[in-house]
Amino acid sequence: MASTIRVRATANGDITEVQALIQHPMDSGFVKDAKGELIPPHFIQELTFEHNGKPVFVADWGAAVSKDPYVKFAFKGGKKGDDLKISWVDNKGATDTTTAKIQ
Amino acid sequence: MKPRFAIHLALAMFALSLVAMPLFTITARAADKIDPEADKKAFQKFFMEKFPKLKPEDFVNGPYSMNEDLHKQWEEKEQFPPYEFSLEAGKEMFSRPFKNGKSYADCFPNQGIGIRQNYPYFDEKEGKVITLELALNRCREANGEAPFSYVKDEMAALTAYMAFTSRGKPFDIKIPNDPRALEAYQKGKEYFYTRRGQLNFSCATCHVQSPGERIRAEVLAPALGILNAMPIYRSEWSGMGTTSRRFTTCNSQIRGVPLTPQDDEYRNLEYYLSYVSNGMPISGPGARP
Q1: Which of A72, A81, B3, B131 has the highest count of CB atoms within 10 angstroms of its CB?
Q2: Which chain A residue shows the shortest CA-CA distance from B237?
Q3: Mind telling me how many Å the CA of A65 is from chain B's nearest CA?
Q4: Partners of residue A85 on adjacent β-strands
Q5: How many domains does the structure of chain A reveal?
Q6: pLDDT of B273
Q7: How high does pLDDT run on average in chain A?
Q8: Residue of B78, B80, B234 best to disrupt the A interface, most CBs of A under 10 A
Q9: Where are the domains of chain B?
Q10: Interface check B193 vs A, CB under 8 A
């Protein structure tokens, strides 16, 4: 299956701007389906961006984050061609990882 | 006046009116002759004059062409379009063969690539309008697969991929020289302009009379080019939707009773609405607020 993570990182001088889109249902556990039964909670709990093995952005997420979430941030110290590793873990223990090169 | 003379006179007048009658019918018919070409010109002229600042190809971006702030948001959004996951799923589904070894490509001209702008078309054998969604499900059924729901998910993914391969190609809907095709077009036009639902809205009330205006928080899209962006990812739905989904939800939002997706009337409507957007580039899949 294709990766659930889309990422684009561009270095501009000292600053690297990162944008990412993650495919995930992010079910809060409070919504009912068409039959009136609760859809069990299913959301990303931890999202990590690592630059050369060092975390630059770590997010503790919960039920309030929307479906297919989008993240944008910037950090200092990235160079063109560096690796940026992105991974998430959800409340069911599922996980996905991808590595992108900074452009 | 002698009675006999009166009878003669009456007869003569009756005969005269018989001669005159066909003349009247001919002139009357000329006045309401169905003329899609003239309709299309008038329709496009109306929007161009209503929005003189817009370039013709801008109309296919719906509300994003109407409002500067929205346009800025959209440009940013397009860097990471929300329809991307669906598009990718569609591409994969499209190339995956059915159980019998055939695939979607076998059902369509040019292997299904770059043909979105030719749908819907009028099938002269069947005497009805065939939309892309309908053709996709017929392709599945002909190959022993269960049809998809017309409104979202798989159908949206497939049409997203087919639209994507046709991006930039101008809508090229043809009306063959067949009275049934003209009738389908005319019925679609009537559907578009007929008021319905508790709110007594027609399609045109929002999308011809008031594009660019707000309806609550939403900015209304112009009818011109509205189908060019289908299928769409709507943030309101947090998911993809097809033309069928758009038609049915429009109907329920005006508190009318929606028809079944791909009902004859919806197909005629899609035929009319696509025809009057002839020449506008395909921009689907789209993202909408």
Answers
A1: B131
A2: A67
A3: 13
A4: A50, A99
A5: 1
A6: 94
A7: 90
A8: B80
A9: 35-73+82-288
A10: no
Question: What residues form DSSP beta bridges with A98?
Answer: A86
- Compute the CA torsion angle B171, B172, B178, B184 (nearest 10 deg): -10
Instruction: Looking at the structure, give the CATH architecture of the domain made up of residues B35-73+82-288.
Output: Orthogonal Bundle (1.10)
Structure tokens of B36? Answer: 């899609």
| Pairing, β B239-241 against β B218-219 | unpaired
- For residue range A48-98, what is the model confidence (pLDDT) as tens digits? 999 988 999 999 999 899 888 989 999 998 888 889 999 999 999 999 999
- For residue A70, which residues of chain B lie inside 8 Å, CB to CB? 80
What pLDDT does B289 receive? 85
Does B78 contact A at CB distance below 8 Å?
A: no
Peptide bond between residue B63 and the one before it cis (omega within 30 degrees of 0): no
pLDDT of residue B28: 46
Residue A58: its H or E element: strand A54-60
Chain A neighbors of B157, CB-CB under 8 A: none
Residues of B in contact with A17 (CB under 8 A): none
Cα separation of B239 and B156, whole Å?
9
CB pairs under 8 A between A and B: 18
- B85 interfaces chain A, CB cutoff of 8 Å: yes
Query: Is residue B27's pLDDT more than 50?
Result: no
Show the domain range for A85. Answer: 5-101
User: What CATH number is given to the structural domain containing A73?
Assistant: 2.60.40.10
Task: Out of A6, A66, A67, name the one closest to residue B80 (CB).
Answer: A6
Task: State residue B26's pLDDT score.
Answer: 47
What global pTM score does this model have? Answer: 0.81
B206 in active site: no
pLDDT value at residue B81: 87
One-letter amino acid for residue B259 of the chain: L
Nearest to B85 among A19, A23, A66 (CB): A23
Residues of A in contact with B240 (CB under 8 A): none
Q: pLDDT tens, B84-139?
A: 889 999 999 999 999 998 999 999 999 999 999 999 999 999 999 999 999 999 99
